[in-house]
Amino acid sequence: MARPAATSGFAHVETWVFDLDNTLYPADCNLFAQIDRRMGEFIANSFGIPYEDAQKIRERYYYEHGTTLAGLMRLHDICPHSFLDYVHDIDLSVVAAAPELGDAIANLPGRKFIFTNGSRKHAEAVAARLGLSDHFEDIFDIHALEYIYPKPMAEAYERFTNAHGIAATAAAMFDDLPHNLEAAHRIGMTTVLVDGAPTPHPEHQAIATWATLPAYIDHRTEQLAPFLSATAARIAAQRPAQDKRAASFCLT
Fold first, then answer.
1. Cis amide bond preceding 152, omega within 30
2. Measuring CA to CA, how many Å separate 236 from each of 5, 112, 166?
3. What is residue 176's predicted lDDT score, i.e. its pLDDT?
4. Which domains does the chain have, with CATH numbers?
5. Is the pLDDT of residue 3 over 80?
6. Is the pLDDT confidence value at 141 over 90?
7. Would you say residue 178 has pLDDT above 60?
8. Cβ partners under 8 Å of residue 50, min gap 6
9. Number of other CB atoms surrounding residue 12 within 10 Å
10. Strand, helix or coil at 201?
11. Please, is 47 exposed, middle or buried when counting C-beta atoms within 10 Å of its C-beta (0-12, 13-18, 19+)?
12. Residue 31: exposed, middle, or buried by beta-carbon count in 10 A (0-12, 13-18, 19+)?
């Protein structure tokens, strides 16, 4: 699929797509550490095995199936609702309101979505803590992906774009995991790596070793709100000139 000629900017973007965990909220909230622990506990309790062994299963299924849940469903017929309700029963008090981020998202022209491998319930709870509940057209979650087609599977992006009539080449994807952005880039999305505080996740650790950005990442930021504010300002500054050129073209 052809990508926009000017991938360095966002003037062509009509749809803004945001991952949730460690993207819309800063990684130093360490929410995902709570989720990881709850996943390990769920597996330990379900299989009657030590927690340490459960965590090994959690990690293996994540890498082999895209998410731990997908592996549990495919191999053990685990109920997704029970799993998701358990692992997302976490303390959200560490997530602070983010009015600057809300203003920045509101100023972006076009449609906005959350696209997450987590549940809608979790995404709604986090968005409420951040003060972002009214800023998104929809949340596309693991339920919409039928649990076994998570990012970065091509099927996930196809389902998401088809469900909402999104042109990938006119969309920007924000995510903290490079492999999710690699998949987005393949279908023509402009990609932004949100590289906040490092976590123990192997992909986050690997980012620190990069000498240059991979070709599938168009932009990188450590602070999402200022990045979006600057992006919205640049687009607003470009629009009058573009509108003037369009009007001139129509008159001729």
1. yes
2. 20, 17, 22
3. 94
4. 15-29+97-249 (3.40.50.1000), 31-87 (1.10.150.450)
5. no
6. yes
7. yes
8. 44
9. 17
10. coil
11. middle
12. buried
